[in-house]
Amino acid sequence: MKETQSRIGQPLAPNAPPRSDVSVAVGIAGMLGLLAWIIFCRNYADFADRFALPGPHERMTGPYAAITAVAFSAGPMIAWSLLIDKVHRRPSTGIDWDNPRPLKSVIQVSMVKLGGLWATWGIIGFLYCLGRWYWRGQYLFAMDVFGAAAIPLFLLSVPYVLWLDRVLVEPRDHAWHFGAMLIGREAWDADEVKKHWRAWIIKAFFGAFMISILPGGFAEVVNADFTGILADPARLAFFLIALLFVIDVQIGTVGYLVTMRPLDAHIRSGNPFLAGWLAALICYPPFAFGFMGGGGIFAYEVNTAGWAHWFAGNTPVLWLWGAMLVMLTGIYAWATMAFGIRFSNLTYRGVLTNGPYRFSRHPAYLSKNLFWWLSVLPFLVTSGSLVDSIRNTFFLCCISAIYYWRARTEEAHLMREDECYREYHAWMEQHGLLTRPLVRFRNRLRPRGPVLQPAE
Question: Domain ranges in the chain?
Answer without folding.
Answer: 3-8+21-436
